[in-house]
Every structure is written in C-alpha cells, then in structure tokens.
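Q: How do we represent a protein-ligand complex in a form that can be generated token by token?
A: Start from the inputs.
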Amino acid sequence: MVRIGSGVTAAMALLLLAGCNKRETAPTINSSMTEVMEPTAQTIWDIMSSAYNDKGDGLDAAKLTAADWKALDKASRTLKARADMLALADHLVVAADNQPILGSQAVGTRGEIGAAWDAVSAREIQSRIDAKPALFAQKARALADAAAQITQAADAKNTARFYAVASGLDEVCDSCHEPFWGTDEPPPYPQGKSATASPAI
Ligand code: HEC
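Then emit the structure tokens for the protein with heme C bound:
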C-alpha cells in the first residue's frame, strides 16, 4: 500500500514537475530555429557540400572522414531531439517579445514591400500554429524522421543513404515554413526600399 501510494505520488510529482518545467522553460520556436535547427542543418549541409563527387551528382565516400561521420551523428541527434520536442509539445510560443522574427521588419510597411510579407509577424505565425497544431506536429515529425535517417546513415557510414536524405532536408524544413511562416526567404530590408526611392547611382 505504502509503496503504491508513494509510487503514485512520485509519478504525479514528476508529471507536475514536467508540466511546470515545460511551461517555464520550453524554448520558443524562434530559439529552436536559430539555436538548433539552423546550426545543426548547416553542419549537415556543409559536410554534404564538402564531399561532392566530380560530377556533382552525388557524394564521394572517400571525402568523408571519421570526424565528418561523427559530426553528422551528433548534429542529426541534436536536430532530432529538438524536432521531437516540437512534435510533442502541447503548446509552443513562437517568439519572446525580444526575439525578432526574420522578415518581421517588413511588417508594418504594408503595401510598400508587399502583402506577402505581412504574414510573418509572430502573432500571425502563432495563430496559424494554434489553428493547426496537428499539421505542425506532423511537419516536426517529418523532420525528426529525416534526422533519424541521417543518424542511421552516419552510424553505418552509408554515403548514398546520407546523400539521399541530406539533399532533401531543405524541403523538409520548407514544408513547415510554407504553411506557418509563409516564406522561406528573408524579405528585403526596409532600407532597401528607401535606397530605391532615393536617386539611384
Ligand atoms: C515543424 C515546423 C518547422 C520545421 C520542420 C522547421 N521549421 Fe524553421 N521555422 C518554423 C517557424 C514556425 C518559423 C517562423 C518563426 C521564426 O522565424 O522564429 C521558422 C523560422 C525559421 C528560421 C528563421 C528564424 C528567425 O530568425 O526568425 C530559420 C533560420 C529556420 N526556421 C530554420 C529551419 C531549418 C534549417 C529547418 C530544417 C532543418 C527548419 N527550420 C525546420 C517552423 C519549422
């Protein structure tokens, strides 16, 4: 009895802790993108680019070193862990007040840069995610799957498999950016606009 009782209490305490913890410390989506997705994906892309064969249509296994495979294993595991977090979290905050969203500098210049960029405010992204949490989770799972496949390829030192997944990684990122962020390209900076307005040199 006592054991069951304390076990239940411990489990409940853990759940409560996990719940509180999640609410207080879950990183914003913006932090996940800038601090985890971008650097880990960059590591993967850099290693892929460094190993192209002469024809440029695949990779040359001889150009991938043990250190590369190790770095790929590490980056892909970090990427997967964060994608899993995005897939499982029940509520995610897009950005903190002091975190600028790439492209949001164009918001507020409605009509001058183009309506397409009005979509990138944190509030708009938040409402899109809140409206379609299942789609967001599905896109995050797709990224977690791709990352897991890169880990498998890295651990097996399977160059063809690595190339097959890594060369499609950008599309996996984009397929979430398109519906929720609305863009995968940074919009022109407002300064660019005034430069056009002033006499061109
Ligand atoms: C499950 C959805 C999802 C996936 C998958 C995803 N992203 Fe994002 N990403 C977002 C959202 C939403 C934004 C817009 C919010 C923001 O800019 O912070 C964003 C924005 C970004 C930004 C701009 C951050 C900024 O400064 O505003 C970068 C860089 C980025 N993602 C990189 C990546 C890379 C690289 C991948 C793939 C390895 C990826 N993302 C996969 C949802 C996703």
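The two ends are 84 Å apart (CA to CA). The helical segments are 2-25, 29-50, 66-88, 122-131, 133-156, 159-166, 169-180, 190-197.
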